[in-house]
Write a structure and sequence with these properties.
Layout lengths: L7 H9 L1 H4 L1 H17 L5 H22 L5 H35 L7 H26 L6 H14 L2 H62 L4
Helix pairs in contact: 1-4, 3-4, 3-5, 4-5, 4-6, 5-6, 5-7, 5-8, 6-7, 6-8
Length: 227
């Protein structure tokens, strides 16, 4: 799968111009750039970590330029908006995982399958992966952004992300569906076994009747004198 390149400088410029465009426009820009990069890659935790890290670096560089025309509160709002935009994009990644998992469930794949266990495990780690990448990139942003980044990261540490909430809900839903499917499969198997047992009993009875008839016919043949 080809990798969609992140236009790092373009994102920096868009961040720097956020004051005139507004935070909602900035959020959309970050969302679209993140989603485009994710769509050009295999949707693994490693690639999610890489994309989020690059977007965060661009956010920091853009915010640093924007800081020249605004105070710390403005910079903090820009960084908060950037994280929210990435969060929005990763919601699409969670939904893509949910649809793929639903196909596996519909095909009867069970919780014992290694591929399914890994997919569910990766979903549970998606929020941690995202925030770890943001924190790592934010940590190298420089002293001038340390304060605003600290405030933004503390907020998300407390409230969590929409990605994390949706990922957890998806895991719980998928596990519930698979457990229900397993119970239904077991019930169907028991019913089939019971039907087979009943059929087997009837089959044996039929064989016994046949054997009895054969014995009776054989007895009549012996009792009839030869001419």
């Amino acid at each position: 799968m080809s990798k969609a390149a992140l236009d790092h400088q373009a994102m920096i410029d868009q961040f720097a111009q956020a004051a005139s465009k507004g935070n909602e426009q900035l959020r959309k820009v970050v969302h679209d750039a993140t989603l485009k990069a994710l769509q050009g890659r295999e949707l693994s935790l490693k690639n999610i970590r890489g994309v989020v890290g690059k977007v965060t670096e661009a956010a920091s560089a853009g915010a640093a330029q924007g800081a020249m025309s605004g105070g710390a509160a403005k910079v903090e709002a820009m960084l908060d908006t950037a994280v929210a935009g990435m969060d929005d994009a990763l919601l699409k990644a969670v939904e893509a995982n949910r649809l793929a998992l639903q196909r596996l469930v519909d095909q009867g794949v069970s919780l014992r399958e290694t591929q399914l266990k890994k997919a569910l495990g990766d979903l549970e780690k998606m929020e941690d992966t995202m925030m770890a990448a943001v924190k790592k990139a934010a940590g190298s942003a420089g002293e001038g952004l340390a304060g605003p980044w600290t405030q933004v990261l503390e907020k998300f540490d407390v409230s969590g992300t929409k990605t994390g909430a949706q990922a957890l809900g998806t895991v719980e839903s998928m596990v519930g569906q698979m457990q229900a499917t397993m119970r239904e499969t077991r019930a169907a198997s028991l019913k089939a076994a019971q039907t087979l047992a009943e059929s087997y009993t009837a089959l044996v009875s039929g064989v016994m009747i046949g054997m009895a008839d054969a014995l009776r016919e054989g007895g009549k043949a012996k009792a009839t004198p030869k001419k």
